Amino acid sequence: MSAAAHPPGFTPTGTIAQAADRRRVVFATVVGTTVEWYDFFIYASAAGLVFGELFFAPAGPGIGTLLSFLTVGISFLFRPFGAFLAGHLGDKYGRRLVLMLTLILMGVATALIGLLPTYAAIGVAAPILLILLRVVQGISAGGEWGGAVLMAVEHAPKSKRGLFGASPQIGVPLGLLLASGTMALMAIIAPGDAFLEWGWRIPFLLSVVLILIGYYVRRSVEESPVFVEIADRKEQTRMPIIQLFRKHLLLVIIAALVFAGNNAVGYMTTGGYIQNYATNPEGPIGLERGPVLWAVTGSAVTWLLSTWFAGWLSDRIGRRTTYLIGWVLQLGGVFALFPLVNTGEVGLLFAGLAVLTIGLGFTYGPQAALYSELFPASIRFSGVSISYAIGAILGGAFAPSIATALVDATGTTMSVTWYLAGMTLLGLLASLLLRDRSGIPLGPDHEAEQAKSPIYGLSKA
User: Fold this and answer.
1) Which end of the chain is more exposed for a tag (fewer CB within 10 A), N or C?
2) How far apart are CA 351 and CA 95, in angstroms?
3) What 3-state class would DSSP assign to 3?
């Protein structure tokens, strides 16, 4: 194929010719995913702080909190639907189109949540509408990640895929930082009853501004060079989902388990559990809302830095080795978390979260490059999106609800620690089953090589 068939700045090898174009891709993926996950985490934070009282009040404080956390998990059940849709569209019509659609869908749903009447105003219709909008958020999140990852990794030079792939990954801790920071500011601006009445709504309504910024930035980025080459050859797969499950079902399951081990632990903060546990006035700690939110915000910084570093490191020592180091660090963080949180000291609570996020970063930073290198070019969007969505269900979907139920049943957070340790070991086992394919060619010319099984014990031919 001639170089002229590609957009300006692209080379047939699938990299961007100019450093300025590379920086634009990285910036666009960071901004876009930050906005998406800000929207997603604002909901989880509000679920831990106010939704139980505002939308599930008749159930009582304990059950209301549990129901509130269940709405966080319900959205995950619809992520595979979003991943199916996005995977099909992304493999047939391009990564860029999907990214624009998911950004708009997430923003509209988030802003509408900020306008919802509460149970006191409209009764049972309030939680029903809340759940419906959370489902829309889940569909959007299911399609967002795969597109952002492939835009970053498929644009990257071979030796920097881990670093480029970390750009959408750091959008997650940035989204958490932005969401927690905004909630913390509102706790100062609208303390006490004012936060319940209107303060919590402002972060949701701010989503409109952020979506406009994200949309503008993403429009400036060209389509993935790998997809451009596939489209120029008219080699798009007609039914990518069917091909994925027919040929790569076991790989999808193993890849999903890798993410599940990270996601279950991460949702102790991103799912709102620690925020609720530490601020519950009837709980063992009873800290003020503001300081806890600032501690979570600070831990998002350590998560961001470790995620970026792990992506960079994976380009030097391989994805698999970086993951194995990460699982060990994460396991240590799991056992340190609640002993530090249960001291009731905000500084030690932050320390527990910071230690935990170092391991989380190491088991999240390399994921974009790892997933992209596992699947053939023609079905890659479907492969990475669906693996991610299934992993999210197995991992973080109901982690806050499970943690709440475990503490209610046992009276101790040690039961939560063992649950998180088990999920970490599950992720470790799944990582051990995969060969390291760092640097494998990603273009359609190498589809046969990409289709060889990366699972140990299966034929590579």
Assistant:
1) C
2) 39
3) helix
Got the DSSP string for 342-391?
A: TT--HHHHHHHHHHHHHHHHHTTTTHHHHHHHHS-GGGHHHHHHHHHHHH
Residue numbers in the chain where pLDDT is lower than 50: 1-17, 461
Q: 10 Å Cβ neighbour count for 460?
A: 10
Whole-angstrom distance, CA of residue 420 vs CA of residue 426: 10
Question: How many Cβ atoms from other residues are within 10 Å of residue 249's Cβ?
Answer: 10
Which value, to the nearest 10 degrees, does the dihedral of the CA atoms of residues 100, 106, 111, 112 take? 120
pLDDT at 375 (0 to 100): 94
Secondary structure letter of residue 92 according to DSSP: H
One-letter amino acid for residue 314 of the chain: S
- Distance in angstroms (rounded) separating the CA atoms of residues 48 and 375: 37
Q: Reduced to 3 DSSP states, what percent helix, strand and coil does the chain have, rounded to the nearest 5?
A: 80, 0, 20
Reference 37, options 129, 133, 103; nearest CA is 103
Give CA separation, 398 vs 73, 273, 275, 391, in Å: 5, 11, 16, 12
Taking phi first (over 0 means left), then psi (-120 to 50 degrees means alpha), and beta for anything else, what does residue 435 get? beta
What is the number of other CB atoms lying within 10 angstroms of the CB of residue 115? 11
> Can you read off the two tokens belonging to residue 128?
């029903």
